[in-house]
């Protein structure tokens, strides 16, 4: 009898896992409590994979020998509790992809901030070096789909803490942890320690042959390093000091040092600007060096990289007011980086689904740089509490159009309207891309 695999959630990761499970001749069933996107539904039907939507039928789920869980489903979900109680094995889609990757290599990238940019830049370096590689995970295809449809010799994977929560054997040859700041605490019983532990799982299966790249300037990472580091080769990066091995920036020059080789490059030559992007560039550059990519290829790629959509991108300048789309800033730390790089007075668009945010981190920068705050979310009380005393002008809005019009009303020539919400987008939008697109449309309509 075929082994039965049940997949919970029919988004990119769920459908990717279903395709791989079908290819490996399992008895596959997909269950999604919500409505499945038409393109994904079509794919399941084309591949003759049975599914249900708008419900989770226990009798069809609890007879599984393996459950693959969408990263979006929290542990406190009743069905998940039931599956755990029955003792059914449950894994994430990246774990399942790992089982079938063969002898391919993995660069796995996680962190509270910068992981998407670091993943995209690392992938760009690998492409520039003509490696048989793909960017997967939270950007592009899911890992399992890529393994099923178009396997590669190297996978550059962006990994969230939710995906790491359900790994068993998953082991990246190179693991990158960009930083750790308070994020997603609603999923971790509001205990920061739980979230930290989750991030460090990226190295729990690494061996002496594997490398762990981490930010030596990040206090939290440093504090917990010895607790979680078992066998990996640690490779630090820093902007505060020279290092015998790793990546560092001193006097506006980046140094990448790995196994007696050194590459240097001026920070002015980086295609992406801002202090946070210097960390992202170091992480990508040193990952590439560890993979044996030649210096000139790394240099070329860093100079030609284009930054990501919805990440600090200028939409337009309207009557002297610049509009910047940073919709991808879904936590407080991302918004801190965005504000830190601002040189003009800011009208800040904030708000959305609060994940247990601590806004006090932004207080000094808001006092220094922000002249008005436009709240865009269903519940804005916490934002008013945090900044009400420091910012005279604050207004609530319920759509991107209203937010953009209000911000434009507050702005003078030479100001910046910055959409950097510090929150998830699910109260008013499908996702951060949808939020960014609606912002862009609203700016164009001014």
Give a written overview of the molecule.
- The protein is an alpha/beta fold.
- The chain folds into three domains: 4-87, NAD(P)-binding Rossmann-like Domain (Rossmann fold, 3-Layer(aba) Sandwich), CATH 3.40.50.720; 95-304, Mur-like, catalytic domain (UDP-N-acetylmuramoyl-L-alanine:D-glutamate ligase), CATH 3.40.1190.10; 313-444, Mur ligase, C-terminal domain (Protein-Tyrosine Phosphatase, Chain A, Alpha-Beta Complex).
- The protein contains 17 helices and 20 strands.
- The protein has helices at residues 12-23, 38-46, 58-61, 78-86, 93-99, 115-128, 143-149, 161-164, 192-200, 219-228, 275-290, 295-304, 332-340, 363-369, 381-387, 400-410, 432-444, and strands spanning 4-8, 27-32, 51-53, 66-69, 89-92, 105-110, 133-137, 154-158, 174-177, 211-215, 233-238, 246-250, 253-258, 261-266, 313-318, 321-325, 346-350, 370-376, 393-397, 416-419.
- Strands 7-8-6-9-10-11-12-13-14 form a nine-stranded mixed β-sheet, covered by helices on one side. Strands 15-16-20-17-18-19 form a six-stranded mixed β-sheet. Strands 3-2-1-4-5 form a five-stranded parallel β-sheet.
- Helix 5 packs parallel to helix 7 and helix 6 (115-128) packs across helix 12.
- The protein is globular, with a radius of gyration of 22 Å.
- The model has no long low-confidence stretch (mean pLDDT 93).
